[in-house]
Specification:
Strand content: 15-25%
Distance between the termini: 21 Å
Number of strands: 10
Strand order of the largest sheet: 6-7-8-3-9-10
Order of helices and strands: EEEHEEHEHHHEHEHEEHHHHHH
Helix content: 25-40%
Shape: globular
């Protein structure tokens, strides 16, 4: 479950992106987030992935307050999230299979099972025959299918898609959305931020509309304009195809959840020279302060609930929530870009493989 409780977000420029919004998304829902440019919908999505921290209010995932969670736990949270982007974010120097496998190396899937898992998700999205191709050899729709396969690799509870059809033609857009719909039918929560009015109108899913930082509409079976909110979804209108020939593989994929998400080891460090400078996958800046290292060590060795950071520690953090003002972070900022990326990947691999989001009690029982 995703829950926003009176969430406000004010940027340093003074812009109020979110103005006290509250809503819930239940497990297994398919939800569209819509609104004009500058309405606040992108900030809302970034609050779900913890790229942004609310200025006020709380964001909960599975009853855990991620708005107050330690930076050390952010990559663990993101193992439960699959992220799909408008610009695909594939590494041009890697093949399709290598792009998907790279995500598995980052989260620590064992090499013994990684290759079979990559083949499985590629077949599910219908591009197994493109495994040895490079991104430039693929169409836009095929590249987005690779991105979806990458997002599916850890069998996440939630897939967050930010304008996944923004660069695609109408027919390909329907096929990509149909693929997300098939994944949703397997029980995965899907949240899509989009401007594509045709798809929203055809699919008749829940629609949350943001305007000037407020939620102005929340329809169970809505359309893009809000003129129709029918009692039942009209799925017969939607003509896209999702699984061309991967239905059986998808059933196997859903049955191997524990293998994919729990069977992890310390992966080999990927050479920084093979990583495109524009590539980003989750929060790879994992340099921790001494206090955070102690907190993370305690978390691994204890089942006690995680408590929010003290206010004085949060004051040391920059507002973007990514870098801390510590001697360690100052040192890494002075390294060259390749060295920083290689160290970040190694750090993330080392401790993301040690624990799982499901292995610890993340319920926050404290009241502010």
């Amino acid at each position: 479950m995703i829950r926003f409780d009176s969430v406000k977000k004010t940027y340093k420029s003074g812009v109020d992106a979110l103005k006290g919004i509250s809503f819930e998304i239940l497990d297994g829902e398919f939800v569209f987030i819509i609104g004009k440019s500058g309405s606040g919908k992108s900030t809302l999505m970034k609050c779900i992935t913890r790229e942004e921290r609310p200025s006020e209010g709380r964001v909960f995932i599975d009853n855990f307050d991620i708005s107050n969670m330690s930076r050390a736990l952010v990559p663990i949270l993101r193992r439960e999230l699959g992220m799909v982007f408008q610009d695909f974010r594939l590494i041009p120097t890697k093949t399709v299979a290598e792009n998907v496998a790279f995500a598995g190396e980052i989260i620590g899937i064992k090499k013994a099972s990684l290759d079979s898992t990559v083949n499985l998700v590629l077949n599910i999205v219908g591009i197994k025959d493109k495994a040895d191709c490079y991104p430039e050899e693929l169409s836009g729709g095929e590249q987005q299918r690779v991105a979806i396969a990458r997002a599916m690799l850890s069998n996440p509870k939630i897939i967050v898609a930010d304008e996944p059809t923004g660069n695609l033609d109408p027919e390909t857009s329907e096929n990509i959305m149909a693929l997300l719909l098939e994944i949703n039918k397997g029980g995965t929560t899907v949240v899509v931020c989009t401007h594509d009015s045709n798809l929203v109108d055809k699919m008749k899913k829940r629609v949350i509309e943001i305007e000037q930082g407020y939620i102005v509409r929340d329809d169970e079976y809505g359309d893009y304009t809000g003129e129709s909110n029918v009692a039942n979804p009209l799925t017969s209108e939607f003509g896209g195809y999702g699984f061309e020939h991967g239905e059986e593989d998808y059933e196997d994929y859903m049955d191997t959840d524990s293998e994919i998400t729990k069977d992890t080891e310390e992966p080999a460090v990927t050479e920084a020279s093979n990583v495109d400078a524009n590539f980003s996958f989750g929060d790879t800046d994992t340099n921790l302060s001494s206090g955070e290292e102690a907190e993370f060590e305690a978390l691994i060795n204890s089942s006690e609930e995680v408590k929010p950071e003290p206010e004085e520690k949060k004051d040391e953090e920059k507002e973007d929530g990514l870098l801390f003002e510590s001697s360690a972070s100052n040192e890494i900022k002075n390294e060259d870009k390749d060295g920083k990326r290689a160290k970040a990947e190694k750090d993330l691999s080392n401790w993301a493989s040690e624990i799982s989001f499901d292995d610890i009690d993340l319920l926050d029982s404290e009241e502010d």
